[in-house]
């Protein structure tokens, strides 16, 4: 037995794993499973490694418990007590509850930040190299390293954060499939998602829930009533007054009416003229659909369908304003239970008052309806008729640029030495040649221009030019040399690159300390100076020695040293100043 | 035969500034304008010889105008100088003949103008070479040729500037516009400099990815042209050619025309100054300078 000192909290026999019988041990720090007839644990999971547990639904024949580990693997245990199913369930429940208690205690606290950092190091080989060079070797503390990379972390965080508002499935109510529970009842399985959906689509229910649940009824009772209530069922005309959802139904009616007035007021759409018929007559064979439904129940149902769809659509558009509304709603919720306890009458009074307010509002609005509608109509017509881009609106004139020296502006940034041949001093540029002379000379030359193809390039000048253009010639300087990247081996190049990377990082830390305005920065700059020295000793000098062995034409580490020297100089002057100030 | 056919258009811009060339002649330089033109024609013919589809254009950048020496507009009657019949390939002969004829026309026109000038006693003609104008003409020509290019054929264009006279600062804007247009059209600009270094062309070549070469021995011009500028930019990468020089992109200040490393730029008109002045002398903008904020006296005593 391994670790006999471990306290065994629970032993469950008759537990199958991969079709073999065994015993499940729940211990202080881990759970283990032992094959029958053996005394060594075949399976052992530290609680810290377990991410979650899952259990099979009661409806399933097998009573199972699944353990999901952090690395994504899973294992399933089958509870197989031969005596009865009841006992199997009991076994599982005991394990489940124990796990429920234990798991949170061992929940590895992998902060999201740590995960992020890990991810960055994995994804960015350059950072990883830097981390190895600087942090692992102790040159820079991890805090400093990450502090300079906080933008990477936050950007990663931001990437995950913008949560998109998830909409509501239109069939969420239908998807709650009631199950027969053997007796003459139905059982609804409500998940958190479904409840959330209900709340989202029916804010009134949410309000009721907040009002009623902790004080008046229990959670399950509330939902039982919800499903029992006519509110949920198809026929809503029989409204029981005692029901808590009666009010909801009433308000729903109001909302429906409001919706109708709001959506069906486009002056360009006459809904009453729309007939329920196909575009192509032959398609349905009915030219005029005269069937009107007389069944009030059906009509009511269609109305409710429409309303349901409206609510579902609206649930997606919940913006911040609704959040504000919600919070204010929550305030009123706090009050209302008190009122309920005090006096039922007041509640109903306030309710009627509320309704009264609504109807008042309605009357007020009808007075202005006509006026508003004409304005709206005009606006719509204007929208349809006028196109912004066809307007010949005159652009306001911009500020005129007054250029006093236009010429210098047109001349552009060319240096003064090149201006000698400008018109003003053309004569001087031509030396002693007058334009007449010049043109006379040229016309003479053109006149004597014969065909002298053989004389275009003389042998001696050709040879001289050949020398110039050949590798090593006057014009080819720099090309005959091998390129640097061909000289230096890839390994050395990589090494130099890494050193560069690491040192630039250190120098960045160093330079960010300036201006040294606080005590912490002062400490840091002193520390960084030491770090730089250490880096020079441990990395730069060995590299320099190594490079010097290859006898490269160029000083490959020269620039690195230069950068270090600049940093040292800065530090020294700063320190000198500091001392001067002190004394 | 599904390969894309690529033809190459080479546009050579030759600086034909008569003042500069005659001065060269006066100081007994070995390179003369006719020699230069001959070399350019040989280069052009060699380019035509490289591939059957290759095309050629030669533009003269003169002091008062830029002229296409070859080809001439198709409506014009083909005029060319009589050349001795030595069995030269007809196309090459045409190039040579036309270039010579147009050159003599150009100089003859100058002479006429000079005579007019004597009568009118007016301002003398400008002495700058219109390189920027010639480049713009070359770009337009390249654009037209690209549009006329039959489907399935790919036209790559490059411009070679053979320049002797000095940069003309008054053309700066036009020149730079032409250069950036060329860059946008994927047209490479090469420069072969005969005398003084040209900062503008250095930049132009660097921007468009062309070669800039100031030749040390002008009498060997043809060899430089054939050696360095005949291969097209694709082939150049495989050859050992003179390395690209570092281009000095420093700007000169507007006030003294000195090159400055770091200067002051007017935020309104983008004028460059070597020293700070509270009023921009180009656009009269007044700058309010907010001095560095005063460090509070209550500095913590360390």
TrEMBL record, chain A:
Originating organism: Candidula unifasciata
Chief location: nucleus
Membership in a protein family: Belongs to the TFB1 family.
Domain BSD, residue spans: 102-157, 182-234
InterPro entries: BSD_dom (IPR005607), BSD_dom_sf (IPR035925), PH-like_dom_sf (IPR011993), Tfb1/GTF2H1 (IPR027079), TFIIH_BTF_p62_N (IPR013876)
Record keyword Transcription regulation present: yes
Protein name: BSD domain-containing protein
Annotated region (Disordered), positions in chain: 329-358
Automatic annotation (TrEMBL), chain B:
Gene3D superfamilies to which the protein is assigned, alphabetical: von Willebrand factor, type A domain
One GO biological process term: regulation of DNA-templated transcription
GO molecular function, one term: zinc ion binding
Keywords for this protein: DNA damage, DNA repair, Metal-binding, Nucleus, Transcription, Transcription regulation, Zinc, Zinc-finger
GO cellular component, one term: transcription factor TFIIH core complex
Subcellular location: Nucleus
Recorded superkingdom: Eukaryota
PANTHER family linked to this entry: GENERAL TRANSCRIPTION FACTOR IIH SUBUNIT 3 (PTHR12831:SF0), TRANSCRIPTION INITIATION FACTOR IIH TFIIH , POLYPEPTIDE 3-RELATED (PTHR12831)
Record-given protein name: General transcription factor IIH subunit 3
Origin organism lineage: Eukaryota, Metazoa, Spiralia, Lophotrochozoa, Mollusca
